[in-house]
Predict the 3D structure of the following.
Amino acid sequence: MNCKPKPIQFVYFDLDDTLLDHRHAERSALGDLHRTYGAHLGHLPLEQIQETYHAHNVVLWQKYSAGELRQEDVRRLRFERLLESLAVEALEADVLNEAYMERYTQHWVFGEAARAAFHAVADRYPVGVLTNGFSEVQHAKLDRFPEIRKRLGTLVISDEVGYMKPHPRIFAHAAEAAGTPPEALLYVGDSYHSDVQGALGAGWQMAWFTLDTETPPEGVFCFDAWDALVDWLLAR
Ligand SMILES: [Mg+2]
């Protein structure tokens, strides 16, 4: 059987919900707002607030990604729409957004398993981060975890490139920054839409961090535990 693995020369990691647990930070920050603004939000189940916020935020990010909204619109509108959906009138969206960002920052987590795997991979391959997000926020995350930044050969943030994953241009930009041909690049990420489709569309190799490891797209390595990624990469 001819299944010699294709060489990998450079590994790019996604940041949110791959190296860092963004969803935990989002949910925890909303939990803090639920307590802080208990007089206005306390009668609502926290889960309803978390799910409603998330649903609005996803739609707004899609519009931002399509160039239909600016950053400041996304930040304001996600809370305007949340308050509208919850029929809460006595709170200001801008105040909530500011409180949210302050709390969100406090809840960033670089999990132990992700941390160990990141360093093991970085000991063997040059590594980079390729992330969708606001420049200021993504830089703040790397300032919080300087051990990630220290090991990066390249850092590519959608806000600074002008294209978001899965757009082929941001992958092309990242490949050029790494000085590596697309087929020798591996992307490690959690999102089917942004990461798997983006990387495969750009001709990269893909390691998909997903709980659904049953039906991997052709040529994609799926993992749900960080050890599995390291074993797979180091055995090559
Ligand atoms: Mg992600």
